[in-house]
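Minutes, project huddle
Topic: does the predicted pose make sense with S-adenosylmethionine bound?
PN asked that the exact inputs be recorded in the minutes so nobody has to dig through chat later. Recorded below.
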Amino acid sequence: MTSLPLSPQVFTILAMLIEQRAGLHYGPEDRDLLSEKVSSRALDAGFDSLLDYYYFLRYDPKGSAALDALVDSLLVHETYFFREPQSLQVLVDELLVPAVHAGQHPRVWCAASATGEEPLTLAMMLDAKGVLGDVSLLATDLSVRALERARAGEYNLRCLRALPKGVEGRWLDVVDGRPRVRPELVAKVEWKQLNLMDTANFPPPGSFDAVLCRNVLIYFQDDTARRVVDGLTRVLKPGGQLVVGTSESLMRFGTALHCEERRGSFFYRKVES
Ligand SMILES: C[S@@+](CC[C@H](N)C(=O)[O-])C[C@H]1O[C@@H](n2cnc3c(N)ncnc32)[C@H](O)[C@@H]1O
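Predicted holo structure (tokens), as shared on screen:
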């Protein structure tokens, strides 16, 4: 495919625009990648210069929607059922099930849920313990396209690559090679679009017993990640837990949360004041 020329100067301002909107960071080594992705959208929109396209995105009344669509095309939705299941299982066994047995109604926010495999895995684990009806699950992502797929509950076989026995036939069915999650499970999750950059639009402070924010902070620079984590910390109840991906650590930029290891998984607890 043809890429339009992207000078270092225009790369810098385009990358800044994208980072401000979605947090995604592009370094100089990503110039060719970004040029390819942005060029196809610029050409489709009738531009033959990426500087002109930048001005359109930034200043035209239709630019904001075009920037959202561009950002959506850049997002990586890689995920699958039972990805990094250990931390989810520990969350269920050690926090959510005991809370339900103590008469509470815990709330969990899955803050970058992509096409939904992560919150649906959690829903399956909760159902297996008989407590799904007692736990509220909110799943959000920036991508409207990913959320549409999550709400439809339709998947492909790659999403099943780590599926344990007993899931198929109970919570999902594969018909003609197309996995489909049972609609009653999909309906247990509240799906909403939310940009992690918009911390002012986060749910009210102190609303959640646990927040999952796995495999998304890696796309952000430390300052951005810190701002997002501060926002997520606010929505946790005192004693609530933040769970990040296994390859992510909040220690590199410091956090007010208290890091604890539980059965090999790291949890970040909001200290009770
Ligand atoms: C690699 S997926 C991770 C999905 C899932 N949490 C997991 O661990 O399998 C990253 C997700 O983060 C979302 N994302 C990226 N930037 C975001 C932002 N600023 N706000 C909300 N979601 C964002 C992407 O749309 C994508 O669906």
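Observations noted during the meeting:
- Residues 85-101 form the longest helix (17 residues).
- The radius of gyration is 20 Å.
No decisions taken; revisit at the next huddle.
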